[in-house]
Amino acid sequence: MNFSGKYQLQSQENFEPFMKAIGLSEDLIQKGRDIKGISEIVHNGKHVKITLTYGSKVIHNEFTLGEECELETMNGEKVKAVVNMEGDNKMVTNFKGMKSVTELNGDTITNTMTLGDIVYKRVSKRI
User: Fold this and answer.
1) Integer distance in angstroms from the first to the last C-alpha of the chain?
2) Which of 65, 41, 63, 30 is nearest to 126 (CA)?
3) Given this model, what pLDDT does residue 64 score?
4) Is 28 exposed, middle or buried (0-12, 13-18, 19+ CB in 10 A)?
5) CB 14 within 8 A of CB 118
6) In this structure, are residues 24 and 15 in contact, taking their beta carbons and an 8 Å threshold?
7) How many angstroms separate the Cα of 115 from the Cα of each of 83, 101, 123?
8) What domains, with CATH codes, occur in the chain?
9) Where's it mainly located (predicted)?
10) Which pLDDT score, from 0 to 100, does residue 9 have?
């Protein structure tokens, strides 16, 4: 399955507790809480390029599935990780005790990030 497309955030669960857990400041959490972020994905074979735009904050990540890469996290930190496909509709990675699963079902992308007992879920629709 190809993830390519532009998606806008529709809903999210546990935003504030998750952002606190990864070290985002209270000010940034308050500013980011109601932003309907845009994710743009270009998926070509094993090569994936993702641009996340949250207001004035833009995160660019580019990687080859199954190979080590450097990813920028939501708090601006750069981490080494390997992103793998599970089945034909899930991209999964682990870094710094966190697991991220991005699942595509039709025109809906669900990203679930787990850190300890905090599960942050974002649901975005193709636009």
Assistant:
1) 18
2) 41
3) 98
4) middle
5) yes
6) no
7) 17, 12, 18
8) 5-126 (2.40.128.20)
9) cytoplasm
10) 96
